[in-house]
Amino acid sequence: MTVETPTPAPAKPSKGFLINSTIARITSRSLIGRRRFLLLLPLPLLLIGLAALADGLGARPDEWATPVLVGLGFAVVLPVIALIVGTGVLGAEIDDNTLVYVLATPQPRQRIVLTKLLVAIAVTVLTAGPGLFLAGLITGSVRLAAGLAVGGAVGAVVYSALFVVLSLLTRRPVLIGLAYLLIWEGTLTNLLSGTRVLSIQQYALSVGDAVAHSSLVTATVSTPVALIMSAVVTVGATWLAIDRLRSFSVAGETS
User: Fold this and answer.
1) Class of residue 172 by CB neighbours under 10 A (exposed 0-12, middle 13-18, buried 19+)
2) What is the pLDDT of residues 162-197, one digit of tens each?
3) Half-sphere exposure of residue 206: CA atoms within 13 angstroms, side-chain side
């Protein structure tokens, strides 16, 4: 007599965790293995190099800190790294049609988005953070270096949430993200002071200023406003990304 072994039921995803370690591991390997990730590495090195060069030439920190730490570090290095990473964690899978395999797994959409977002934040912080910290350390102030690192981490969270949702809303997330950085944060916030309350760069600078207590880095947005707006933008963008991902069919098309 043949005894049939019952086929085990497919494992259900655990409801106790907000992230999936397998998706996180695959996303990290895919992101770091992509050629465009190599474009990120020169940016922190450029920041450190310019700070070291200015210091080596005998310039005082108050002469080079603002253009290098703020004008390059917070205005270019941090947001560009976040843009490349944030649009890559989901956007690359949409472009090569491999997102269908992720959506076919028994994972809630919110877990997929939160996992991808966490990877984007971690990679951005680990790539941009050391550069900001070391550049700040060259000024001779450990507290300033810590402030830059903390402010950069806050900026990484908000920028990542924004750029992840952009990758789900448009097929040109990098182009739109660059337009936001160049036109809104690079131009309008410098010309119209009222728009700075909607600038992620100012949120990061405000938090960094609160930690550093240094005249070398100043922000025009108060710390409470920066923290509140950072939370609002991050939560809002994450919710929108989850809602948008729910509209994707298993075939990889949008409804």
Assistant:
1) middle
2) 999 999 998 889 999 999 999 988 887 777 767 778
3) 19
